[in-house]
Amino acid sequence: MNRFLKLLFRNRLAAMGFVVLGLILLAVILTPILPLQDPYTTELGARFKGPFEDGHILGTDHLGRDQLSRLLWGTQLSLMVGFAAALMAAAIGSTIGVIAGYFGGRVDNVIMRAVDIVMAFPYILLALAIVAALGPGLLNALIAIAAVNVPFFARNIRGIVVTLAGREFVDAARLSGMSNTRIIITEIVPNVLPVIVIAMSTTIGWMILETAGLSFLGLGSQPPQADLGSMLGEARAALITHPFTSVVPGVMIFLIVMSINLLGDGVRDALDPRLKSGALSRPLPVTTVKRDGPIPAETDDLLAVQDLHTQFHAGNRVFRAVGGVSLSVRPGECLGVIGESGSGKSVTALSITRLVASPPGIITGGAVRFQGRDMIGASYEDLRQIRGDKVAYIFQDPLSTLHPLYRIGEQLAEAIRVHHKVGKEDLRQRAIALLKDVRIPNAESRIDTYPHEMSGGMRQRVGIAMALANEPEVIIADEPTTALDVTVQAQILALLNDLRQEKGLAIVFITHDFGVVAQLCDRVAVMYAGRIVETGPTGQILDTPAHPYTKRLIACVPELGQGKRVLAAIPGLPPVVDDLPPGCAFAPRCDKAQPACSERDIPLAGQAPRAVRCIYPEEAV
Amino acid sequence: MVALDVENLSKTFPRARPLFGAAPPGVRAVRPMSFDVEHGETLGIVGESGCGKSTLARMLVGLLAPSEGEIQIDGQSPGKGDPAEFGKLIQYVFQDPNSSLNPRKTIKQVMEAPLKHLYQMPSAQRDDRIREIFATVSLRESFLERYPHEFSGGQAQRIGIARALAADPRIIVLDEPVSALDVSVQAQVLNLLADLKTRLGLTYLFISHDLAVVEAVSDRVMVLYFGSVVEIGRADSIFAHPRHPYTKLLADSAPVVGRPLTAPEQKGTELPDPLDPPPGCAFAGRCPKATDICRTDEPELRDMGEDQRAACHHPIDP
Fold first, then answer.
1. Residue A351 belongs to what domain range?
2. CB contact under 8 A, A569 and B167
3. Counted domains in chain A
4. Which range is most confident: A440-449, A567-576, B40-49, B148-157?
5. Most A-contacting residue of B89, B94, B98, B253 (CB-CB within 10 A), to test interface
6. Are residues A523 and A561 located together in one domain of the fold?
7. What is the pLDDT confidence band of residue B271, given thresholds at 50, 70 and 90?
8. Which of A269, A393, A442, A604 is the most buried (most CB within 10 A)?
């Protein structure tokens, strides 16, 4: 709750709305006990008094009634009616939406078509028709306004419920023997309640305005009782001669609707789960760099990551996602980076061309050198020249990396055009050649398809084609086959291997699968809690792992052809990187751990090409 | 004794009727299939995306009404597509542990639901039972008052397993129960499942795309392709001696340490189109041994040596 308020008031307009609305509400609540004049006492001798005349702070109206008193009582009425209408519309509309969304099929079809018909009428006309049928009066106006707003809630809530009803926890509830009614009440409604509240907070101002409109036309509150709309309506006759009488209720309507809308928008943003993690603050095009230590010297590798530190700052917590990682690749070489989720392998990969989202990411130390040049210190323009041209990425999910609205040929062409000036026809030929390179059948016709028309394997081939578009020197592949079926995975891996041999590509291959590493990679680096714990040639590491973590990780992955058996699980969970234990991060889960393991920092040591970060290794390296 | 007996089970999803003309033929997600599972057995079900394994699983637990066919559990046939009736006999463990728990309910509320609604158990008894189940799956009781988002994937999956156990079922369908988990946690959960099976005398249907995991936990394995069973046999021999070319392709594609990298299938082939299924064997288009008969006649599942059945006109020699 505190967090919600903090987020809400970070939005200055919402805070302003909150203050204005708060003052209005306070005045309205205090109205019955304030020393106000009677709002109904007419005094024809004191018509149209200006402000502060004869003790009338806001003057008098055409019947000599005190404007301040009428304003406050009218505001109270308008707010109550608007709130009641919003509540009614939300209750009825949400019920309809929940039922339509949950049951789906024919029920949904019938209900939603009826809602569509209601929406087809201009709302004010519909409201007028309802009032005309029921007769004028504030209650009837309220019913009319609620009725015309029901479709808005019904449609919004239905959309949410359709996705909720397909969620696995609803299936689980069914299997627990719950009835449909109970599932709706206990599983669905609690999850849509925040959405209903948000929808209400953004529409309540609108409903106050609509009620005022009906009253203005004389269809709402009836004299002598007045809400803001009817005050405005009565003042209309004297609009030219005594404009002040219209200004008073007009300004009040403006203030109420404005403050409610600003506050409503603020509430909506503050309740948005994406905002809580700071994601709505748009990340910078490059990761922020704050390096204190010395910058490591140049090497002759094609790509070298040198003592890289990347952190995430969230509130008061600092997550050391990458805590001093050094890697390097030469042309034609494939380096495997293996680790579990949270081990920092993806953040390392993204840090190479400074693609880590900032905020909250910050690179706090080390260097990344491509052909000797430091990319951590490079300007945005220089980085842009390298990204996608010399260093390209392949990501895990090709469906989310390809733009759904552009044909794949256009996307491939764009990837080339960004870096090279090429004519339109050449671009197309080049794109076709790329699709052929990644063995997509019928490349000439496939080039004009959209991503959703392709299978997962084909999309990933397009992802690879895009990475190859500018003949990069290094490809960084972040779990490129994890989302694919095994037969497709085998094809993609073979393809990457062929490309590496044909074009002398260096590949950094990030994965959690030892089988994949064994087949594709020359060398492998094993990561745990943001650091490399072991590195060396793939064959040696798989045959004689030196770090207990590597050994046990290999042991707990079943391998085809070994039959039914009990797996050697590693107890416990990987640590969270905002509170790492001193010394070896794996020590709490390690059966070989000694007190010395948790005393001081353990260096990555050993004879090249192998190295291990352990003082009691399984094998001396 | 047979725990689960499936006869000619199939599911066809109807397609929308066009404005004019007759409705097109539906999508046959699961073609008529029959199999049974013994008490205490683990039947592995493997296949790639779109092979119908999830549709099959949903029918088995009653979340989806079958188009045709019979499901018998322990000699009883629960009504068509009534999860409450199925719930006491067969339960389901979902792939994504976090989305299978309602984010707005405490773990205690989640755990109570099957006891309350399937068994109408009074409150005091429920607490005892939940404590007992939590001890069985080694979860701390302090978790009961917490909300799902506070748990890691491995813990959430344990809670999912605990919930399935609360219904006291004979059979549990495990739908990719470890594929969302990290490898070091995966082994913990697989071992827990094996342990529960022996202690509680359960029968498992283990669905996965990971052949190595399936082989490690199953007694028998059933291979699905395009909605049909193409091969079924003992876990220790089916991948080593496949009779159906598709099983062989799967086994050859799995990345194995020490095996050189070769694409077992060089052509850029794709799965057949479910909206326009090919006649004959659905695998014919990708099969190196396919002949004319494969493109016209759908092969039947038939015995191929000891404990192994395959649906193929030209089975691979053992």
1. 303-528
2. no
3. 3
4. B40-49
5. B253
6. no
7. low
8. A393
Is A1 near chain B, with CB under 8 Å? no
Q: Closest approach of chain A CAs to the CA of B293, in angstroms?
A: 25
Distance, CA of A481 to CA of A489 (rounded, Å): 5
A56/A184 same-domain check? yes
Alpha helices by DSSP H, listed for A504-547, are: 514-520, 538-543
Q: What is the full DSSP assignment across chain B? A: -EEEEEEEEEEEE--PPPSSSPPPPPEEEEEEEEEEEETT-EEEEE--TTSSHHHHHHHHTTSS--SEEEEEETTB-PPTT-HHHHHTTEEEE-S-TTTTS-TTS-HHHHHHHHHHHHH---HHHHHHHHHHHHHHTT--GGGGGS-GGGS-HHHHHHHHHHHHHHT--SEEEEESTTTTS-HHHHHHHHHHHHHHHHHHT-EEEEEES-HHHHHHH-SEEEEEETTEEEEEEEHHHHTTS-SSHHHHHHHHHS--TTS----S--S---PPPTTSPPSS-TTGGG-TT--HHHHHSPPPPEE-STT-EE--SSPPP-
Residue A373: pLDDT band with limits 50, 70, 90: confident
Q: Could A519 and B96 be called an inter-chain contact, meaning their C-beta atoms sit closer than 8 Å?
A: no
Residue A619: in which H helix or E strand, if any? none
The answer to the question of residue A295 being in a domain is no
Q: Which two tokens stand for residue A300?
A: 């002759």
Q: Counting Cβ atoms within 10 Å, is residue A240 exposed (0-12), middle (13-18) or buried (19+)?
A: exposed
Nearest to A566 among B83, B154, B191 (CB): B191
Q: Residue A621: is its pLDDT beyond 90? A: no
pLDDT surpasses 90 at B114? yes
Residue A286 domain-assigned?
A: no
pLDDT reported for residue A101:
94
Q: Where along chain B do its domains lie?
A: 2-13+27-218, 242-318
Instruction: Express each pLDDT in A228-245 by its tens digit.
Output: 888 888 888 888 888 888
Interface test with B, best of A175, A271, A482 (most B CBs within 10 A): A175
Q: Are residues A524 and A551 in the same domain?
A: no
Backbone phi, psi, residue A531, to 5°: -135, 160
CA distance A127 to A214: 8
Instruction: Please check whether residue A399 touches B, CB under 8 A.
Output: no
The interface predicted TM-score (ipTM) is 0.90
Per-residue DSSP letter, A66: B
pLDDT band, very low/low/confident/very high, at A412 (cuts 50, 70, 90) = very high
Min Cα separation B147/chain A (Å): 14
Report the pLDDT averaged over residues A354-360: 85
Q: How confident is the model at residue B81 (pLDDT cuts 50, 70, 90)?
A: low
The pLDDT-based confidence of A83 (bands split at 50, 70, 90) is very high
CATH, residue A449:
3.40.50.300
CB contact A574 to B (< 8 Å): yes
B147: amino acid identity, one letter:
Y
The tens digit of pLDDT for each residue in A251-291 reads: 999 999 999 989 988 887 777 655 554 555 677 888 888 88
Judge if A101 and A176 occupy the same domain. Answer: yes
Q: Following DSSP, what letter does each residue of A463-516 receive, concatenated?
A: HHHHHHTT--SEEEEESTTTTS-HHHHHHHHHHHHHHHHHHT-EEEEEES-HHH
* Domain identity same for A224 and A84: yes
By Cβ distance, the residue of B249, B257, B270 closest to A515 is: B257
Nearest by CB to residue A558, choosing from B91, B114, B216, is: B216
- Is the C-alpha dihedral spanning A605, A608, A612, A617 positive or negative? negative
A–B interface: beta-carbon pairs under 8 A: 213
Q: In this structure, which CATH number among 3.40.50.300, 1.10.3720.10, 3.40.50.12280, 3.30.530.20 belongs to the domain B2-13+27-218?
A: 3.40.50.300
